[in-house]
Amino acid sequence: MRLSHIGALITLSVLVGACEKVVMSRGYVGEFSDFDKIVIGKDREQNVFEKVGSPTASSSVSTGDGSYRWFYVAKKTEKNGFLDHKTIDQQAVVIVFSQDGVVRSVSRLMKGQEIDIVSESTESGGKTAGILSETFGGIGKYRDRFDDSKK
Q1: How many domains are contained in the chain?
Q2: How many helices (H) and strands (E) does the chain have?
């Protein structure tokens, strides 16, 4: 085989490999049938932890009545080449605890319902830098360090 044929084969392999579908699983890895074992009004945090494991996320602030939530989310996405991730399967369970740590409810979210645990972001204070100020903003700031006239 000639060198040009080998180069063409390598290029073709790289191009075909870049278009390969990649499936990723994230979040809760237990069995969702285990949530049926939770007894509402009786089980406490420790019991839930022993039955289904630690949550994917939990509410950091309680509601007005003092209740708080644990979220168990399993999400499977696929990425095809350079295209954005697409959700192909998602399961989620929300467990609500009373103020004293007893399970108040266990609910499964609908399959088509998107879950965004963190949907808000906090703006940082101060000036927001653009691409030009990020790129050229440091020019001249280090002049004193290298200026021989001040030595």
Answers
A1: 1
A2: 4, 5
